[in-house]
Amino acid sequence: MSKQLSVFLENKAGRLSSVTKALGEARINIRALSIADTSDFGILRLIVNDPNRAYQILKDAGFTVSETEVIAVRVQDTPGGLATVLEQMSDANLNIEYLYAFLGTSEDDALVIFKVEDIKKARIAFKEKGIQFLEEQELYQL
Amino acid sequence: MIYWDQEKECMSRQSLAELQLRRLKETVFRVYAFVPAYRNKMDARGIKPDDIKSLEDIKHLPFTDKQDLRDNYPFGLFAVPMSDVIRIHSSSGTTGKPTVVGYSKRDLDTWSELMARALTSAGATKKSIIQNAYGYGLFTGGLGVHYGAERVGASVIPSSGGNSKRQIMLMQDFGTTLLTCTPSYALFMAEIMEEMGINPTDLKLQSGLFGAEPWSENMRREIELKLGINAFDIYGLSEIIGPGVAIECDCKCGLHIAEDHFIPEIIDPVTEEILPDGSQGELVITTISKEALPIIRYRTRDLTTLNTDACACGRTHARMQKVLGRSDDMVIIRGVNVFPSMVESVLLDIPGVEPHYLLIVDRLGNLDVLEVQVEVSEQIFSDEVRKLEDLGKLITRELESALGVNVKVRLVEPKTIERSEGKAKRVVDRRNI
């Protein structure tokens, strides 16, 4: 199970840049990110190389930040790759809260970060169905 | 010891009424003789000092309000020569010309006694170490509490407002047992303690006396929980004497007004009629022992109720309900009166929501709009948009049902709402009316 950092951001100029600046200055590398936004606020979701330290840095910088457990799935980087995984997840009755994708380091597959309702159930289902996912350290070390 | 001055604080209502009448007659006689502004007002109403024969006759006397103090700026309402005035305090004048108040030697003595009563009620003894974080200076809070604390014989730390980290260091190193400041500043310091990794229960702090701004019961609960203390309310206004006009006892069911020095009335703020016992209305106070600046029927703009029933603490002085709001802080939104304290009360009833909020009133087209900014703490934050939106809707619904007006709730980042080291600023009114 991998840790994602979620950060509350007001929709104001410069907020995102102050997060990335704080992380950059502390030599934290961002592996993946996505932003969910509404008209008033946004939630920044981050995968970084050192989530524990990054959490403390953002907290000290005055941000509301929380750790969320997510799972990073390897998806074949070919047409229909994601569809296959989603179909299998649906078959296993896994509820997805949200997801975001990023290109992995290999040429053959992409990575998709899933926030699911029940992460334990997801791991078991993934193993049964042969869906590859990354262990925590693998993801941070990418 | 639960009373500072048992004889005065627990005197029978009958003796109290006799004392009040005697002092009221003296006061009216003195202002008529020595303060032209009062004489003119009384003459205009056809009232002579001799017409005051009973306490009920107070209703014939003219009201005094902030404007009268401004019109007679700076010393026009003083009833003693300046050589007998030994202290001058003044408001900041942010809403107009400052209001200036003066004290004779006896006035300062009275004030010290009243503050000693208040501090004793909040648990102070000569063994207490009292940290006074009200601002020292022209504001009556700092020196008022200071003199009362010295009168009790406690050890006083005159830390004044501001420099929160040093305040906390003083609490730790000097073993402060009683803290005095505004309630919003108390909460702010609790927040700083958390940041500094200090557990308030490791401090010797036992109680706090908080005032100078309206605060809700929920805010009290929050302060008591976060600082691990017993929190007491204190009421006062500089025009009357400063802090100590009314004090809360252990029962925390209203604040005892020092009726041996003041006569309270509740009026309808619009018709100016005196309201029957127990009705909510504007508090009006007449000082009956002050020498330098006697004030007749001062319109406090504070909304409350009066209760003269016996109190379990043994004090006989009438209790005023915790002030809901000062009509100066009140905002009228599409004809509905909204007090910041009402917003505070709603927010603190929602688990995890911090009492840091700001009301922003604006006018779009011809319509008043109220935005309430609420800080998103870690306890209420979620990585899912839906949950945060649900929270926003819940706050909106609760506020709308309590206030009776439409509210737009804006979730903002933590610590972006300005913290106050004195009186908190809760309302920004952007309407240009």
TrEMBL record, chain A:
Q: What PROSITE patterns does this protein's entry cite?
A: ACT (PS51671)
- Enumerate the SUPFAM superfamilies for this protein: ACT-like
InterPro entries per UniProt: ACT-like_dom_sf, ACT_dom, ACT_dom_pair
Q: Which residue range or ranges hold the ACT domain? A: 4-80
The record's listing under CDD domains reads: ACT_Bt0572_1, ACT_Bt0572_2
Any single Pfam family the record assigns to this protein: ACT_8
Report which superkingdom the organism of origin falls in: Bacteria
User: Under what name is this protein listed?
Assistant: ACT domain
Automatic annotation (TrEMBL), chain B:
Q: What is its EC number?
A: 6.2.1.30
Tell me the keywords, alphabetical order.
Answer: Ligase, Nucleotide-binding
- Catalytic activity, as annotated: 2-phenylacetate + ATP + CoA = phenylacetyl-CoA + AMP + diphosphate
GO terms classed as biological process:
phenylacetate catabolic process
Q: Which family does it belong to?
A: Belongs to the phenylacetyl-CoA ligase family.
UniProt xrefs under Pfam families: AMP-binding, AMP-binding_C_2
Which pathway, metabolic or otherwise, does it act in?
Aromatic compound metabolism; phenylacetate degradation
Q: Where is the AMP-dependent synthetase/ligase domain?
A: 80-286
Q: Which GO terms describe its molecular function?
A: nucleotide binding; phenylacetate-CoA ligase activity
Native source species:
Syntrophomonas zehnderi OL-4
The protein's name: Phenylacetate-coenzyme A ligase
Domain of life assignment: Bacteria
